[in-house]
Each structure stands twice: as C-alpha cells, then as structure tokens.
Amino acid sequence: MAPNASDDSATAADAEELRAARRRKAARYVVPATVVGVAAATIGLVPALADSGDPDLPKISAQELVEKIAASDVQQLSGTVKITTDLGLPDLGGLAGSLGSAAGPSGSGDGSSADPAGKLTELASGTHTLRVAADGENKQKVSLLQDAAEYSLIHNGKDVWGYDSKSNSVFHTTASERDGKQKDELPATPKDLAEDALKAADKTTSITVEGTAQVAGRDAYRLVIKPKDEDTTVGQITVAVDSKTGLPLKFTLTPASGGAAVVDAGFTQVSFAKPAASTFDFTPPKGAKVEEGDASKAPGHAEDFGKEQRKELDKGSAELGKNGPEGLNVIGDGWDSIATFDTGGKGVPSGSEVGGDAGSFLDSLGDKVSGKFGQGTVFKTRLINALITDDGKVYVGAVTKDALVKAADAGK
C-alpha cells in the first residue's frame, strides 16, 4: 500500500536522502558507466497493476513498487549472486595478458594480484559467481569464485582486506572515515543496479509491473522498464523485487537488438539472517605476501569495489566539462542522449599502427564511417557505441551507430 498522506513528506524526504547516499557509492562495476548515466536520467513512471502470475501476490502499482524499493533497507544478508555480462566484446585474454605484463593488475607495473583494481576487468565479460555477506555498514564480504581458487574482499571495522588464494597474496588498507549515517551495500547486487535505473524519472520511459516470479526461493514482482526512444540500444530492464523486503533480487538488461541479456545479475540463494561474526574475520595465511595500500586512497568499505576508480572517473568527467578543449556536452535527452567532447588531438590509430593483440582488438571493435563531419571510427558493443572522429571529437552513448553519425553531422 502507498504511505498515508500525513507521512508523504517525511517518506519522500527519507527516500530521497537514501537514494542520494547510495548514488555516491561506486560499486557499479557490472554495468558500464555510460549506461548508468543514461539510465539514471531517463526513467518515467507509468502506473500499472501486476498481471496474474505465479506466485499469486497482491496487486501493486509501479509507483508503489518503486517506493517499496526506495524504502528497502536490508542491512543483514548472505547469499550467492550469479552475474553474466555479454557486451559482445571479442576475447580479451590475449590483450589482458599483454596489458597485465606491462602494467600489473592495478596498472602500476608491480601491483598485487589481490588489489581490487586488478579484479575489475574479470567481470567485464562471461559468467561469474559471487558469495556475498553483510552485517550493517561496518562488515561486508564479497568473494569471487574462480576455478580452484577464490578472491575475497573483506571489510571489518576499519580494515579492508583483499585475498587471492591462487597467488596467496594479500592486499590490506584502512577504510577511510565515513559519515556514520550513510548506509552502504554490497557491490554488483541487483539492488545496486536497480537503483541506478531508478534515480530519476521522465517521459522517455515506461515502467510497469508485469507479473510475478520466484527468485532464490523468494516471491517477487517483475518491474519492467522500457525506453520509448527509437535510437537507443537498450531494449528493456527487468527487475525482480522481493515482495516482502522490497530488495531487488534479480536485474536483467536486454538489448534492443534482441538475443541474450547484456547484464543478468541475480541471487541464486539468499538469507536475511545475521551472518556469523567469523564470516568477516581475516588473518593473512602463512607465507602470504602482504601489500599495504595507500590509506588515503582506500575505499571506505569492502563493498566499494572500484570506488576510487569511479571517483576518479567522475572527477575527470567534471574537470573535462569545465576545462576540456571543447568541454563535455550532452546532445538530446533520455535514452537517446549522446555525450560529446573534443580530445584536442587526433583520432584513434588503426590496428596496424598499434600492432599486436591491442591492434587486433581495436580492429575487431571498430567500423570506419564517414559523413558531413568527415571520417571516423565507431567502436561498438551490444550496448554502448562510441564514434571517434579523425580530428579527435568523441560521441558516445547507448545509441545506434547511425545516431552517432547523425549527431556528428549535426555538430559540423
């Protein structure tokens, strides 16, 4: 049921404060940053009632279900999350190996294999299984299960530990001071992804409740988010929302071109019981190599997988918008939005110029295009496309190749 009228103001204020706090988190390493930005600015609510389905749940409107998500504040849970990402990228194995040997897992040349930064690229494609646990804002753990190995990121109090069992290496740093009122959650959970897609609302999107489902043994409503724009590569987003807690249990993003989901993240098992305290205990194993991280750059919590990287990206984007050669601009609105800026330099070199695995990778991604703007290369995935012109201008968005060329022509 919707809240009483007398509680509307307080409920709306609390929900907005909660959403604002969660937006500051950067544990969104499953969905590309551009998609997050587009989704955050393009959601519109269309009242609708749930169809009959299995399980049989009380009817609920889309507005009420969105409010239920916003009000959800699960602090204790444990479970298993399965994530499949299919951006249509070619095999990154050879390229990753080349880059890794040159720069190390964190880009430093001598980074620890337990450094969280080195694990981000592993989630860019394929299917992965995570074990997650949380007990309030000061205790979280996420483990990436690998072949005969496991990588764990643990936050317990002020300590943040990363442990790679394959190399028996440990990364340790100290959590930065945080606002005690801020509620943080686990990375890459369906809730993180769903909130990215519900940050704002406008007329470019319809949101409906379409039936029910069972996810990880829990009864859930199916919230369906569909763009109305024709040029977007996003088909629809489906969120399975727990009927009791309001916690999103599954997030699926399918492309307009059809086929397999680009991102499919969902719990396969979940419990809301308090995890054992020992879950968050960690002592470096005997013989493990321990690398101490820079506390001044440490993520505040273990669930902030890649937070500093996202923070730097956001900072860089802001600086680019203010100080870049031509600034950062957004063309259009809604799902058809295209970000554009001028690098002030030349376009992308050809694969033959780069050579090696990196050159082959560039050639496999790029399509040469031309128009009134001149010539350039479109780098494509199943979701995000980017046009880089030969004179250094960049157009990027969750839109079709033709939409990018049209935008570049209009910019001449």
Kindly describe this structure.
With 412 residues, the chain is α+β, with helices and mostly antiparallel strands. It has two domains: 5-304, Lipoprotein localisation LolA/LolB/LppX (outer membrane lipoprotein receptor (LolB), chain A), CATH 2.50.20.10; 324-410, TATA-Binding Protein (2-Layer Sandwich). It is built from nine helices and 18 strands. The chain has a twelve-stranded mixed β-sheet with strand order 7-8-9-10-11-1-2-3-4-5-6-12. A six-stranded antiparallel β-sheet has the order 13-14-18-17-16-15. A hairpin with a 7-residue loop joins strand 10 and strand 11.
Q: Uncertain regions: pLDDT < 50 for 5+ in a row?
A: 1-9, 19-53, 92-110, 177-187, 295-326
Q: CATH top level of the largest domain?
A: Mainly Beta
Instruction: Quickly give the structural class.
Output: alpha+beta
Radius of gyration: 22 Å
Indicate the CATH architecture of the largest domain. Answer: Clam
> What is the first-to-last residue Cα distance?
52 Å
By CATH, the superfamily of the largest domain comes out as Lipoprotein localisation LolA/LolB/LppX
| Overall morphology | globular
The CATH topology of the largest domain comes to outer membrane lipoprotein receptor (LolB), chain A
Domain unit count: 2
Following the backbone from N to C, one meets helices and strands in this order, namely HHHEHEEEEEHEEEEEEHEEHHEEEEH
- What is the number of strand segments? 18
Largest sheet: 12 strands, mixed
Which bin fits the share of residues in helices? 10-25%
Write down the overall mean pLDDT.
74
Q: Report strand order across the widest sheet.
A: 7-8-9-10-11-1-2-3-4-5-6-12
| Beta-strand content estimate | 25-35%
Number of continuous helical runs: 9
